[in-house]
Write a structure and sequence with these properties.
The protein has eight helices and 17 strands. By secondary structure, it is an alpha/beta fold. The strands form four sheets. Strands 1, 2, 3, 4, 5, 6 and 17 form a seven-stranded mixed β-sheet that branches. Strands 8-15-9-10-11 form a five-stranded parallel β-sheet, with helices on one face. Strands 12-13-14 form a three-stranded antiparallel β-sheet, with no helix packed on it. Bound molecules: flavin-adenine dinucleotide (FAD). Flavin-adenine dinucleotide binds next to helix 1, helix 2 and helix 7.
Length: about 325
């Protein structure tokens, strides 16, 4: 079979690319299988997004990342990872989804939307951005409800309700407000999330204080209708007119995909996929985790900057086997 490699890497995000660079450096054959475009998650981030990490913390394979300001934009990050992939001649098949991984003798058979591949070692670097945390309320399936936010212009002169008070929600609230949307926020607690970027937090707090953005504190969205929404507030249930709902309540890894492969998940709410943190090997010999997928529901624990080191841990373990 021609499709045989030392390593198959599932997911062409920054950490999948970091693993490929490390494998290449050590002379191992590998192939990245990516279901979307190159760094698909980053491509789908809000168009005007700025990373909270400084550019050197997003570097992979020791290749310098130069940005105009200390913290790079999404556009600069796309430029960087694309140049890394092309100048390093990384072996990557785009728009090819991995559908299953099964054991065949002493190898793994990886079945994709286009072909089959064999390898003794698999790296799963599938991230957490494909599945949004749903609200599970009536009306959530209406086309006006979005779990991903891209460009503020679309919402100009519209009544927009934003669910959540963390980074994604706050960025969307401020951007859409500044492009002329009438913005309200439904916030479960009584303050803006503590992890909101420190240079953005005062901005949202002051816009709420001055009444430019309406915040419903200690409240929950309970129903979405075509032209209005129902909110449970401490003063009782209210209904407000609405054109769009941005439910930016976080994302989670594809646990079914991991379970189908045979990877154990912790039995608590965190659902952390079992792995040895010194080698990143899972409960299945030769199957490794890399990047933010390692954190299960704890999606705030791993970033590019602290998970890029997974690459060398994994490749060293494979070489020592
Ligand atoms: C809005 C936002 C801002 C962020 N800002 C920062 C920051 O400033 N600094 C930082 O360090 N981190 C930041 N993060 C987190 C960061 O984006 C992630 O840490 C990063 O994308 C993780 O890289 P990864 O390679 O582990 O996963 P991802 O980048 O998510 O890559 C996973 C890839 O796997 C692919 N895939 C999934 N399933 C399959 C399959 N079955 N077959 C084939 N391919 C598959 C996906 O299409 C995707 O391309 C941010 C996250 C978000 C959402």
């Amino acid at each position: 079979m021609n499709n045989e490699y030392n390593i198959l890497i599932i997911g062409g995000g920054p950490i999948g690319l970091a693993c490929a660079l490390e494998a290449q450096k050590k002379g191992l054959t590998y192939l990245i299988l990516e279901k979307g475009c190159l760094v698909n998650s980053l491509y789908n981030y809000p168009v005007n997004m700025t990373f909270f990490s400084t550019s050197e913390k997003l570097e992979i394979g020791g290749i310098p990342f130069v940005s105009n300001n200390i913290k790079p934009t999404r556009a600069e990050a796309l430029e960087y990872y694309r140049r890394v992939a092309t100048s390093s001649h990384l072996k990557i098949n785009l728009f090819e989804e991995v559908q299953s991984v099964s054991k065949v003798k002493d190898q793994y058979l990886v079945h994709t939307s286009k072909s089959d591949y064999l390898s003794k070692n698999i790296i799963i670097s599938t991230g957490f951005y494909d599945l949004p945390n749903k609200l599970n309320i009536p009306g959530e399936d209406l086309p006006k409800v979005r779990h991903y936010y891209s460009d503020p212009h679309y919402y100009a002169m519209q009544k927009v309700l934003i669910v959540g008070a963390n980074n994604s929600s706050v960025d969307a609230a401020l951007e859409t407000y500044r492009k002329g949307a009438e913005v309200s926020m439904v916030i479960r607690g009584e303050q803006i999330g503590e992890r909101v970027k420190y240079w953005v937090r005062p901005d949202i707090i002051n816009r709420i204080k001055e009444g430019s953005i309406k915040a419903y504190w200690n409240s929950a969205l309970t129903r979405i209708n075509k032209h209005d929404v129902e909110i449970q507030t401490p003063e009782g249930k209210i209904s407000i007119a609405n054109d769009y709902v941005l439910a930016l309540t976080g994302y989670k890894p594809n646990f079914d995909f991991l379970k189908k492969i045979g990877i154990h998940l912790s039995h608590d709410d965190k659902q952390i996929p079992e792995h040895d943190s010194s080698t990143m090997e899972t409960n299945l010999k030769g199957i490794y985790l890399a990047g933010v997928v390692c954190g299960g529901m704890e999606t705030h624990v791993w970033f590019i900057e602290n998970s890029r080191e997974h690459a060398s841990k994994i490749i060293n373990n494979i070489l020592s086997a």
